[in-house]
Design goal:
By secondary structure, the protein is α/β, with parallel strands linked by helices. It contains nine helices and seven strands, in the order αααβαβααββαβαβαβ. The relative contact order is 0.16.
Length: about 220
């Protein structure tokens, strides 16, 4: 299949929106999965109310958990259909002003000079053409003393993959990113970080997984 016959990246994710929440860890419709993610976010997010920038927010499942914990959330996603579903899922908080959702590039979020207590991203870095530059940009969006919460993993070897959209054939972290590679890229940019292994927590995924899954929680100076 030639690159020109593939959808654009935005078109691909737009097409995924209708069925995106069918995956247990996406929709969090299953009580066990939802409560497992709630517990993890409770560990990773500040105890008091803060501001959370949820990048690649999808249909807003993690945003909703953060809102229910008392935080204010700005979600950004490239796909308008994902943003529309996130607004529906968090309709009460959108109406109250504690939640906002924008269509935009998560790699260069359209937030102007705004900064946040937490930057949250899940399974996003593998989709970006220059993740190292994006990480440096993201660190600049976090207030001093704030944190980045990056939920990532390594699911496939790049050689096993075919491009899913135009321009994705040579993504540097195609198939996911190993924890050691993300740590090497992020460690020089932050004050400290920790890696939390997630692969053994079946409730998060709705099934047993054999591949590498983890979160990096990084603190800014």
């Amino acid at each position: 299949m030639s690159d020109s016959t593939l959808p654009t990246v935005r078109e691909f994710w737009e097409g995924q929106a209708e069925t995106y929440d069918d995956e247990v860890d996406h929709g969090l419709r299953d009580t066990s999965a939802r409560e497992a993610w709630r517990a993890r976010l409770s560990d990773w997010l500040p105890a008091g109310p803060g501001t959370v920038l949820d990048l690649g927010c999808g249909t807003g499942s993690l945003a909703r958990l953060a809102l229910e914990a008392g935080h204010r959330v700005l979600g950004v996603d490239l796909a308008p259909a994902m943003v529309a579903l996130a607004e529906q899922k968090c309709a009460e908080q959108v109406a109250s002003g504690s939640a906002r959702f924008l269509v935009g590039d998560a790699g260069a979020p359209p937030v102007g000079d705004e900064t946040f207590d937490v930057l949250l991203a899940r399974h996003l870095l593998w989709t970006l053409p220059d993740p190292h530059a994006v990480l440096a940009r993201w660190v600049g969006l976090v207030r001093p003393g704030g944190r980045l919460v990056l939920v990532e993993g390594r699911w496939w070897s790049a050689g096993d993959l075919t491009p899913y959209a135009q321009g994705t054939a040579d993504l540097p972290w195609q198939g996911g990113v190993r924890a050691e590679d993300l740590v090497a890229a992020l460690d020089p940019l932050v004050e400290r970080l920790e890696v939390v292994c997630l692969g053994a927590d079946d409730a998060l995924w709705g099934r047993h997984v054999e591949d590498e899954r983890y979160a990096v929680v990084a603190r800014t100076g």
